[in-house]
Amino acid sequence: MDKTPSSAANNNLWFNKTDTIKPMINKLTKSGKATIFLCLMLVLPVSAIYAQCAFKTIGHRGGSSYYYPENTLLSLEQGFIEGIYAAEVDVRHTVDSILVLMHDSYIDRTTNGNGTVKELSLAYLKTLDAGSWKDPKFKGTPVPTLTEALQLAHKYQRKLYLNMKVFAPKLIARALREANVPSDIIMPDPDDLRKVEEYRRILPNTPLVYFGELPEDAGDASFYTFLKNNGVAAIEIPADYIRFATDDYFTRLRNMAHDYQLELWAYTVNDQPYFQLLKNFGIDALETDRPAEANHFFCDNLPAGFFPEKYITGQWDFNNNLQGTIGSQLVVMGDPDVPDQKIRFGTTQSFNLPLIENSDVNIARIPAFDANHALRFFSNIAPEGIPGKLACDNTYSLVFDLLKPSGENTYTAIFQTSNQNADDADFFLNGPSNTFGIFGEYSGGFADSTWVRLALVFDLYNEKLHQYLDGDYIGAIRLDNSQDGRFCINNNWGVQSSNFFSDEDGETNPLFVSSIQIRNYAMSADEIKDLGKPKANKISKVILSDPDLPCPVFHEELDYTREGNTIHLTANAGNQVNYKWEMNKGNGWEYLSGTAFRVAGPAKLRVDGNTDQLSGYKFRCIATNDCQTVSNEFLFSDIVSSDPDREVAGGLFMMYPNPSDGTININFSQPDQNYTITIYSVLGIELFKRHSVSGRWQHHLTKGTYLVRVSNDKQSEVKKLLITE
Fold it and tell me: Using CB atoms within 10 A of its CB, is residue 167 exposed (0-12), middle (13-18) or buried (19+)?
């Protein structure tokens, strides 16, 4: 959902849900408005899980878009698994009038294709990869139709909250018929009162979420009466309205809505401090990219976890194309057929340029873009922290491996936040000595036709731009009043793009570029130093952790309890950690799916029903933060074998974690009995043996693969063990 205003200084064009949201901003102006514990698990119906909690979680952009590609069935299903009330999906129509899930008007950011949705056929969209931009493991994820999304929602008995980028109630009605699902499974979002009436006429049994102009007087009873009489179930507003309110307008709006049995929803928030503000306010529902965390916080009074995580959200290595090594592809804005505005691909050798680390490296030649051309990039930085008045990211880092030949112009544009090339660039090289900076503050410098690594670290909360050359700190430029201003970068809410190497009046020169990287945080001087100079293997993807951040380590065994036919498993790898669960049925690790599992709280897995069928399945709990990622792998049969009320053939012991970084733990199915432990190499050579071991036992091993044998006077059991470090 889009909620991104912009200052005149920034020139980041604001594309809202529709143009009719603008009266809401008028109301904003009038009133003066502003440790993750993620477990990916299967769930029972939401009513069975969160019946004790009236709060409703709305999965932003298709269910669970923080870790999964937005507006895909994959993200939708994960959101349903995590217990959302509804998935907010963005809907557009193709040239052949088929409704599909796509946020942007163009497909460039979230697929490997190009073009505008309304000018493309469904057949073409179905050939595209809509997952790799998020992570290579999602390669091949297709663009879904609304009909397909409806069928999946019906399977899980969830709702779809439709962020309609086009007003098409008849096409919605057709999709409902094709999916053969009830009409109340959807909740469209009319943004004016006329559309409320039209939806009511065409979809009389469909609840609506009003997203339009608010009344001048929050106590205007006729407004709420009209909404209630025309099928509206909720009113949604930007969370910033509540954050920056200077009077009681929105408190009165909430109270009046409740008096008329209408809910008040807000969007889009992902972090705990903002969760707390909205919880204190008494919001009824919230759009979020992190639904499991929101449910834990609002319904279970549990922490919302470690957030934000440090990410490289984009990297481009110019291997004969503009595809992202990480993140979305780059796109040339403007007429692609203008000869002197085309990007050319080759190698350092083919362009007769200096090698990089004595290696011939793939590079691209960027032309001197004119006012009608630019190289568009997408930051893909999710909403982080309590935002300012703009949906804009105020901390980020850009790293460039580039070479500038001698040029005709004084200035060479490097970076521009104005997504439509409507303003000056926000960082330049200056003159033949290639000093760099902005606002007349230029420092550093390097020779023409030399490969350099230029790093820009924006910390706008402290109004600073830190500059580095080849890993060395050059200095800082003070950017007064820059928070949410000209230099903040378009994030993943509204306007998605910014530009490289362009300026609104063509103040630039040709460049050669080997690699570009963007990170969603302000890198430290140590991290930049570690990156060093340009490398033949491009910019390193290593992220250094905060030295004060405790690394996740599985200190204890999985806690196991049974209640009738329900098993509870709890992991413990620390507090400042995010958790998720995966399963392996023999075909590799995958997220959990089905109805046997459900969210039970941070780091907890709940298994319901007959567990015998899971005896051959592997499970793992993954614990991660910016320090490291570790996993605690186990066979389900090993877990239940430790249950004193259950006999499992051959289940003598449980060994964890496996793989391990050196230390293993062994729990015995009968802790009061004595066992013999023998450890062998994979060649069968006995390396260790101990008799009369009981209860719980711990041992340290060096890197390698082992066989662990546990025996008593009746039977023995052997398991394979991998030590990774």
Answer: middle
Q: Is 466 a catalytic residue?
A: no
Domain boundaries for CATH 2.60.40.3080 within the chain = 661-725
Known catalytic residue at 373: no
Contact 631, 621 (CB under 8 A): yes
Q: How many CB atoms lie within 10 A of CB 616?
A: 11
Element at 227 (helix H, strand E): helix 221-229
CATH class of 20-300: alpha beta
Pairing status of strand 56-59 against strand 86-93: parallel
What pLDDT score does 644 carry? 46
User: What is the CATH architecture assignment of 312-531?
Assistant: Sandwich (2.60)
Q: Strand pairing partners for 312?
A: 519
Q: What is the pTM of this model?
A: 0.80
Whether residue 282 contacts residue 273, with contact meaning beta carbons closer than 8 Å, is answered with no
What distances in angstroms separate CA 259 from CA 190, 226, 496, one per listed residue? 21, 14, 38
Q: Which CATH architecture has domain 661-725?
A: Sandwich (2.60)
C-alpha–C-alpha distance, residues 78 and 657, integer Å: 26
DSSP structure class, residue 118:
G
Residue 208, beta-bridge partner list: 232
What percentage of the chain reaches a pLDDT higher than 70?
87
Contacts of 534 (CB under 8 A, 6+ apart): 356, 357, 401, 451, 452, 453, 470, 514, 515
684, amino acid identity: G
- Residue 319 confidence (pLDDT): 96
Q: Note the pLDDT of residue 651.
A: 66
3-state DSSP assignment of residue 201: helix
CATH 2.60.120.200 positions along the chain are 312-531
Please report which helix (H) or strand (E) contains residue 225, including its range: helix 221-229
* Active-site residue, selected from the candidate residues 60, 93, 373, 466: 60
Q: What are the residue ranges of CATH 3.20.20.190 in the chain?
A: 20-300
Which one of 103, 296, 373, 466 is the catalytic residue? 103
CATH number at 565-648: 2.60.40.10
